[in-house]
Design goal:
The complex is a heterodimer of chains A (about 250) and B (about 240). Chain A has a domain of about 170 residues: 3-Layer(aba) Sandwich (Rossmann fold). In chain A, about 40% of the residues lie in helices and about 25% in strands. Chain A contains 10 helices and 10 strands. In chain A, strand 7, helix 6 and strand 8 form a beta-alpha-beta unit. In chain A, helix 3 crosses helix 4. The N and C termini of chain A lie far apart (about 40 Å). Chain B contains 9 helices and no strands. Chain B is an all-alpha fold. Chain B is elongated and about 70 Å long. The longest helix of chain B has about 40 residues. Classes of the chains: A alpha/beta (about 250), B mainly alpha (about 240). Chains A and B meet through helix 2, strand 6 and helix 3 of A and helix 5 of B. Bound molecules: adenosine-5'-triphosphate (ATP) and magnesium ion. The site of adenosine-5'-triphosphate (ATP) has 11 residues of chain A, from strand 2 and helix 1. The site of adenosine-5'-triphosphate has 11 residues of chain A, from strand 2 and helix 1.
């Protein structure tokens, strides 16, 4: 259970989040959508304590992250897996070591088991045979998938995906969507997905939050969002620019 | 300044409370210690020879030829060795540390590390700090050895010094305290280079520009810190070591 209560965040004069609140129940999957630059990635970073809110609280399984120091946060983060928007792979390591890293850190020492689990993850993200490649040899989409493998290999109970399918071709996107759904259903995992891909949001998100200008504009079940008659929402999900609004800006 | 002290505190806490990441430490020791030998050897040899020649030219006028090697030895051991090795290592290693950690920060690798239940201080800072602290005295000893050997060879082959006299005087006038003074300074400079390099990297600004600035600041600030602290270390340790 993740509870976000009235968090606000600014960077200098740039007010990014204004009193954002939402809850995510255990086993639920939530999609966060919204225009570029509205603070989606910033919200996600607050959930694992990578950023601290200026005001408001974030609680994970009842424990407030605000009062924790970095070492206490480390233990809370053990239950999380996170895919960064830019993949954030360790460029001093090859693909295998990147995926093995969270396993080793969570205390798995048996090399045979590590190898077996890393290989299995590479198969799941449809990239078998690249384990000894350096990161510089991978394309952007391939990095994203290695990042995904690294985020879920240690079987976390809460997974945060920042744009998992951006930059992937439609076929791979589709299989990544399926993978995320499979992971969610198999282990009763809580997942939070930021996405610009409405098809993917519809398929993964049971609930959808539409973030607009740093505020939760709408928080509703998926079909409600996709059938919404609110012009702001319907234009966003259909991907149509509002010329009047653009002119006003 | 305040936050670098906090980082130092965190490093010491981590040193005593968490297990060392041996593989990272060995890797850093290899890069920081082993691979710095070339620049340190060059610096040591060049300084030893130049210093020996200049000292000889002046001393020769006063017929004090045999004191040349002693002066070179003492200066190398207490001041030139640790300071020059420190400045060279700050340029090579401090810059590399700041650039690497800075790049990791701007590409969110450090955030990724944190989400994988790994404290950046344990995993990144402590191995680098320990490696510089251990490598610096070893590199300094290397500087002494090459510097004095180069001065000796130059002295007896070109300047016509008496080898046996030179060595005897050197042995007679250089105390254990001088060697200790040099070593303590080297350890201290190693700590400065490791800490400032890591601090600048971890707190680097955005983008390529941020990494560039962090690298630049790491080198400039460690060099200044080495030069300034050297003076005070000399005064303070002299009082302590030579009662
Ligand atoms: N570390 C930071 N320091 C300063 N400003 C930041 C930082 N991180 C994010 N911001 C600012 O916060 C705002 C929201 O950024 P964020 O990355 O959350 O957008 P987003 O909704 O994820 O956009 P996109 O869909 O393009 O990824 C931006 O204006 C950005 O400049
Ligand atoms: Mg984003």
């Amino acid at each position: 259970m993740i509870e976000v209560d009235n968090i606000s965040k600014s960077f200098g004069n740039n007010v990014v989040l204004r009193e954002v609140s939402f809850r995510v129940a255990e086993g639920e999957s939530l999609a966060i959508i919204g225009r570029s630059g509205t603070g989606k990635s910033v919200v996600l970073k607050h959930l694992v304590g990578l950023m601290m809110p200026d005001a408001g609280t974030v609680r994970v399984q009842g424990a407030s992250l605000n009062e924790m120091n970095e070492r206490e946060l480390l233990t809370v983060r053990r239950q999380f897996g996170m895919l960064f928007q830019g993949a954030a792979l360790f460029d001093s390591m090859n693909v295998f070591e990147n995926i093995a890293f969270p396993l080793r850190r969570s205390g798995v020492t048996d090399e045979a088991e590590i190898e077996q689990r890393v290989m299995e993850m590479l198969r799941l993200v449809e990239m078998p045979g690249v384990e000894s490649n350096l990161l510089s040899e991978l394309s952007g989409g391939m990095r994203k998938r290695v990042g995904l493998a690294r985020a879920i290999v240690h079987r976390p109970t809460i997974i945060l995906y920042d744009e998992p399918t951006t930059g992937l071709d439609p076929v791979v996107s589709d299989s990544i969507d399926q993978l995320m759904r499979r992971v969610r259903d198999q282990f009763n995992i809580t997942s939070i997905v930021i996405t610009h891909d409405m098809r993917s949001a519809r398929r993964i998100g049971q609930r959808i939050i539409y973030l607009r200008e740093g505020q939760v504009y709408l928080d509703a079940p998926a079909d409600e969002v996709f059938n919404s008659s609110d012009p702001v929402i319907s234009r966003f999900v259909k991907g149509e620019a509002d010329l009047k609004e653009e002119e006003l800006l | 300044m305040g936050s670098i002290v906090l980082l130092a505190g965190e490093v010491f806490r981590s040193l005593f409370t968490t297990r060392l990441h041996w593989d990272e430490f060995i890797k850093q020791l290899h890069f920081i210690g082993w691979k710095s030998q070339v620049i340190v050897l060059t610096t040591g040899a060049s300084t030893g020879m130049v210093f020996c020649a200049q000292t000889f030219f002046q001393f020769h006028k006063m017929k004090m030829d045999n004191a040349t090697l002693t002066v070179v030895g003492i200066a190398m051991i207490t001041e030139l060795g640790p300071v020059l090795a420190g400045l060279m290592v700050a340029g090579r290693v401090g810059a590399a540390i700041a650039a690497e950690l800075g790049t990791m920060r701007v590409t969110e690798q450090i955030d990724a590390l944190r989400t994988m239940a790994t404290h950046p201080v344990d995993y990144l800072v402590v191995p680098r700090f320990l490696a510089t602290v251990i490598a610096m005295p070893l590199l300094t000893v290397l500087t002494w050895a090459v510097g004095i050997a180069a001065a000796y060879v130059l002295g007896i082959t070109v300047l016509g010094l008496e080898g046996a006299y030179g060595l005897r005087h050197l042995y007679f006038f250089v105390d254990v305290q001088d060697v200790m003074l040099g070593c303590i300074k080297a350890v201290f400079f190693g700590g400065i280079i490791g800490l400032i390099g890591c601090y600048r990297g971890l707190n680097c600004g955005e983008g390529a520009e941020g990494v560039g600035r962090a690298t630049n600041q790491a080198v400039v600030q460690s060099c200044i810190a080495i030069l300034v602290s050297n003076f005070f270390l000399t005064l303070f340790l002299r009082g302590l070591l030579y009662p």
